[in-house]
Specification:
Blueprint (H helix, E strand, L loop, with lengths): L10 E6 L5 H14 L4 E5 L6 H10 L7 H13 L2 H9 L3 E5 L2 H10 L4 H5 L10 E6 L2 H6 L11 H14 L5 E4 L4 H21 L9
Helix pairs in contact: 1-9, 2-3, 3-5, 5-8
Bound molecules: thymidine-5'-phosphate (TMP).
């Protein structure tokens, strides 16, 4: 394998509680990397555009009821249905900024009481991110921001449990940013981390799989 063929886009994931600022920061990062001339796309999970995604969306809107295990597997299936496209994009040199990924899957379902190892199992074999950015915010501060849209998980008490699950999941490779700092400060920190990862992947880095 020569190094040139190993050059690829970076898989960058943003994680955090609801209202931690992931979505706004994702779009800022997209413009930033585009401005530097990189090929980049912004993705999000759940991807509500697929058939599975529509089932997830109606569950979140409380328009349907599903067993906790069932919805967990649908969230996972929603990532599996995008897996090969994800690999194609990365190998063709496109960086993906992904708003939520397998870690949300495990954090939210285990916060309901499901066994954490059981939650991880269906994620095994999905592409491993090159960088996980954790937008850290106390649940109370996130709730104060308002704008909980009334979806199923958008309640302070549940978000506290999710924060605890994220703490268990986080390992040394995650980059944590204090997300209650002013928006521009958060953005500045994220830019540096993201650029670093994009450069590393450009130089050539092999793709690996979860759960490692
Ligand atoms: P969103 O607000 O980022 O679109 O996500 C919708 C909700 O779904 C959010 O409360 C987090 C939750 N979620 C899971 O429970 N499991 C998952 O795998 C993902 C991606 C999100």
């Amino acid at each position: 394998n020569n190094h040139k063929s190993d050059s690829r886009g970076a898989l960058i994931v943003l994680e955090g509680l609801d209202r931690s600022g992931k979505t706004s920061q994702s779009s800022r990062l997209l413009s930033y990397l585009e401005g530097l001339g990189h090929s980049v796309e912004s993705w999000r999970f759940p991807d509500r555009n697929t058939g599975v995604g529509q089932m997830i969306s109606s569950y979140l809107a409380n328009e349907s009821q599903l067993d906790d295990h069932t919805i967990h597997l649908l969230f996972s299936a929603n990532r599996w249905e995008k897996r090969s496209l994800m690999e194609t994009k990365l190998r063709s040199g496109t960086t993906l900024i992904v708003d939520r990924y397998s870690f949300s899957g495990v954090a939210f379902s285990s916060a309901k009481g499901l066994d954490i190892e059981w939650c991880k199992a269906p994620e095994i074999g999905l592409l491993a991110p090159d960088l996980v950015l954790y937008l850290d915010i106390p649940p109370e501060k996130a709730a104060e921001r308002g704008g909980y849209g009334g979806e199923r998980y958008e309640q302070l008490e549940f978000q506290r449990k999710v924060a605890h699950s994220y703490q268990i999941l986080r390992d040394g490779s995650w980059k944590t940013v204090n997300a209650w700092l002013p928006f521009d400060d958060v953005e500045k920190q994220l830019r540096e981390m993201v650029l670093d990862s994009v450069t590393t992947c450009q130089k050539g880095k092999s793709l690996s799989k979860l759960w490692s």
